Amino acid sequence: MNCKQVVLSKAQLKEMNVEQLKTLCADIRREIIENAYDHGGHLASNLGVVELTVALHYVFDIPQDKIIFDVGHQCYTHKILSGRGESFATLRTEGGISGFPCREESPADAFSTGHAGTAIAAGMGYCYARDKKGENYKVISVVGDGALVNGLSMEALVSANEKPKNFIVVLNDNGMSISKNNSGLYRMLSRMTTGSGYEKFKRGVKKVFGNSFVTKGMVAFRDYVKRNLNRHNYLDYLGLKYIGVVDGHDIKELVSTLKRLKNTEKPILLHVHTVKGKGYKSAEEQAERFHGVSKNFEDSVNAYSAAFGNALSALAEKDDRIFAVTAGMKDGTGLAEFEKKFKNNFLDVGICEEYAATLAAGLSAAGLRPVVAVYSTFLQRAYDEILHDVCLQNLNVTFCLDRAGAVGADGVTHQGLYDLS
Q1: What is the pLDDT of residues 62-114, one digit of tens each?
Q2: What element of type H or E holds 247?
Q3: In this structure, are strands 398-402 and 369-375 parallel, antiparallel, or unpaired?
Q4: DSSP state for residue 386 in the 8-state scheme
Q5: How far apart, in whole angstroms, are the C-alpha atoms of residue 370 and residue 73?
Q6: Which of 276, 278, 330, 403 is catalytic?
Q7: What is the DSSP letter of 179?
Q8: CA–CA separation, 293 vs 298, rounded Å?
Q9: pLDDT band at 287 (very low <50, low <70, confident <90, very high)
Q10: How many domains does the chain have?
Q11: Cβ contact 278:284 at 8 Å
């Protein structure tokens, strides 16, 4: 493909009107698709946050205000809008820019993030340091692709019932991690955005009253009622004011909402509903396949993962005690077919490797033969659980680690160098 680069200054962005912002989003989406086709990369996750990222850059003052992406693979639009449009074609290539936020690369990258779970904790750290130093800026933690249910995210949320001021957690709710998200928390939070009644109500009101203040008032009232009926006010006890649900692809609504939030000091959780793969039909319909793509969008089959999945299925045919566990990546680890054949012997725990390890220890202690399939780099988080819960009890747990060794384009955060050591 012939990739036409989007290059503009912060001043040019700030001067745009809503219609120009819509055109900009279309241009950025096209560039991300074309660049991913030419070089590979994280496609579906980035297509889903184009409008959200444009709105954040439009409303807030980056890099003075801090944006922390969680997981970091959602950062492509952010790279384009923070002075790296001209070098975007070098993304994930030797000598080029990283596919993840990188503090050494740009002051706009407030925190280097590749793994999940970091943004809320790091964002709160920024806030406490800012307040201690008497500085003045906003901190925005953008949490998506299942990262909210990571243990570190939950620890940060429940650590104190008062959160620092000028702190915004944006929940990019697309119902996915890498594979489909099965978390009960996400299902509860997503219920308002996916219910047909809610969407029919909005369409009906707009049809009668257009985009008038009557429409906005009625939708806001319905949101308020639904929020209370769905007991979202429990977030108040965690020190966050819940705002939602906002259409993550309506640039006008996003800008309007973020402007209001910019003018309040209250710590906020902004619930944004997005579609993973938005704007590219194949990625919308097959978000798992297009989460990360190879050059020319060719199907990339990892021979080792496929062989592992086939071998484990063959063993499970003979031994019903075999139980497979993965952490948000059943396709990448070769377990998609295993799940279809042995649904009652399979669990995807989401981005929770510590839970996966200790869950497997419990399965083993109770007489099963658990097999935990995780990318090498992500299992680093479960070091204590492997040592304390599995090894010290001499339990029969098999860990199968994918993508070990040097992994190339994904960079420093994703190297699988530390598993055996």
Answers
A1: 999 999 999 889 999 999 999 999 999 999 888 899 999 999 999 999 999 88
A2: strand 241-247
A3: parallel
A4: I
A5: 30
A6: 276
A7: S
A8: 7
A9: confident
A10: 2
A11: yes
| CATH at residue 284 | 3.40.50.970
- Those residues whose C-beta lies under 8 Å from the C-beta of residue 202, and which sit 6 or more positions away, are 219
Active site residue 103: no
Q: Can 66 be counted among the known catalytic residues?
A: no
- What is the predicted pLDDT for the residue at 196? 45
pLDDT in tens, 379-419: 998 999 999 999 999 999 999 998 888 877 777 878 888 88
Residues 247 and 333 in one domain: no
Of the residues 296, 327, 354, the one at which a domain ends: 296
b/e map 10-22, b = 16+ CB within 10 Å? beebeeeeeeebb
343 is catalytic: no
Selecting among 51, 339, 353, 385, the annotated active-site residue is: 353
Tokens of residue 205, six digits: 């009101």
pTM of the predicted model as reported, rounded to 2 decimal places: 0.79
Active-site annotation holder among 163, 381, 385, 403: 381
**Domain assignment of residue 25, given as a range:** 10-296
